[in-house]
Amino acid sequence: MPRAASQRRSLLANRILDLVRDARFQPGHHLREQALGDVLRVSRTPVRAALQLLAEQGVVEARRNHGFFLRTPPEDLHGLDVQAPSTSEDLYSRIVRDRLARRLPESFTQTDLARLYGVERSALARILARLLDDGLIHRNAGRGWCFPPTLDTKLGLEGSYDFRQIVEPAGLLMPQFTPDPALIERSRLQHLYLVDHPAIETVPAAQIFETDTQFHEMLIGFSGNPFLLQAIQTQNRLRRLLEFSGYVNRGRIKVWCREHLAILDAVSAGSPEEAARQMRLHLANALSASHHRRPARRGSPVSPAVLPSGEGVDDGLGEGPHEEGGRTAPA
Q1: Which residues form the HTH gntR-type domain (predicted)?
Q2: Pick from 189, 253, 298, 301: CA 20 to 30 A from residue 50's CA?
Q3: Is 0.85 topped by the overall pTM?
Q4: In the chain, which ranges are E strands?
Q5: What number does CATH give the domain 154-306?
């Protein structure tokens, strides 16, 4: 859908919202296309498109062969403003957030997404290529794409941190633990780059995530135990979608980078006990931050407004508590 048409659809959707708020329609109210078109003085076709957009937002429900019905009470619509994705970055983030909120199925086709988001297939192809490169989607064996499994329940998130609290400090204390000074120095420079960066918001999310995951996999790799390394690599794959949905609160990134650097300092000083203590503290900070989020029913999908994510988030898209509030940040 061309940008101008997308904007017109968003504008009409907001006019419908205004009408719903003013009329105090209650959940279950049938939003008839013809009636809305008559009031708003537009044809049924753009009204249908605007209602579909509101359905994508979860405000209304589209019932096959029956039309559209209001899902949200009018008092919950105050301040809601429908915006069409304005840039490829907006659409990239929206796809990730929608998957975490279960608004997208695990498996999908390019045609499905083009219709859902009202974008041209050529533009969507570029977004899918980025998602593929970042490891956030995979090609199906047959047709279409799929999202990988992720830690998007409160139970899964807590279980992951509990598991890592057992494995990662223990890896630092293995008798055969042998650090590689060259790898440690490379990791240190990667972290200092982020700590000293004057415009951290410009650093790609992929670079931030890889700095984090490479740090944890490097240290567990020094344990010399391939089973421990495989376990942490699996955890990082499960974290990837959550981490990429964030990185908005970039101030938190510098906090966890300094925590990582403290662990590297202890390893370089030949103090595995101190490194293990710092690692436990680092992971405990991350778990503690997850508990400061809005409560979610244990075992249920976490609301997109409170999802853990990249090492510092603010809008749903990682590890430890952060000053500005928001979600957990990578660990």
Answers
A1: 6-73
A2: 301
A3: no
A4: 30-31, 60-63, 67-70, 107-108, 138-139, 145-146
A5: 1.20.120.530
